[in-house]
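For reproducibility, we list the full input for the adenosine-5'-diphosphate complex.
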Amino acid sequence: MIEFRDVTKRYPDGTVAVDELSLSVEAGTITVFVGPSGCGKTTSLRMVNRMIEATSGQVLVDGQDVAKQKPAQLRRGIGYVIQQAGLFPHRTVLDNVATVPLLSGWSKAKARTRASELLELVGLPVEFGKRYPAQLSGGQQQRVGVARALAADPPILLMDEPFSAVDPVVREGLQDELLRLQAELDKTIVFVTHDIDEAIKLGEKVAVFRVGGKLAQYAEPAELLRA
Ligand code: ADP
Ligand code: ADP
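The corresponding predicted structure, in tokenized form, follows.
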């Protein structure tokens, strides 16, 4: 479903962020990219939706080289969630989520109904839809970010440290929610974290990166060598 073939990313200043990465992410799984800061996790993730272009090698989504696809079209099938939920501050929570279906031509009423369903799906009370993002906690904002990423029903979800900014108790709740959601939705999720415990909890497959952008291990959590 997502395949990295010998992918290298060298930034203009010469930094090799990702060094000959080859791996396949299976459809319908949560695959976690884990490793210390600066080991190339975010760079790898962003090459999937072409926020970053590979220097050499190929990234394929559904067998198609992403370099040959229009970014806007590619991204329609790829939801993206980051650490700071990145919500529009002047729009209500409901309208933040409804924006995506509105942009794809749904009527306002239909888009808002869909947005309400999504808020429920991510475990937010429907009344929260009327609030503005600043009136939500960090964890609640992340739930809205996930709801918005799911609004276009993309088969792929890229998540970059989505739960790192919230406190440990809330984080555990969000992790449990994600597992529950995934059991229901069966997305192909690539999840970036620096936290090995989070990787083991969430990942069906875990890719361990090391500094210099090399893949050190790629295995099911139970098979990882915890050195
Ligand atoms: P991670 O997500 O694992 O923290 P990144 O993919 O963000 O790692 O970064 C990998 C390496 O590439 C790091 O050494 C980082 O400093 C470097 N890097 C990231 N973005 C740029 C950039 N735009 N220009 C130069 N170097 C960069
Ligand atoms: P309504 O449902 O009442 O039509 P909209 O969400 O469409 O509300 O927005 C109403 C007005 O506010 C529009 O003119 C829109 O362009 C503007 N607007 C909405 N969100 C923002 C924003 N984040 N920044 C600036 N203007 C905004």
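Residues 17 and 38 are 8 Å apart (CA to CA). The chain has a mean pLDDT of 93. Both points were considered when choosing residues for closer inspection.
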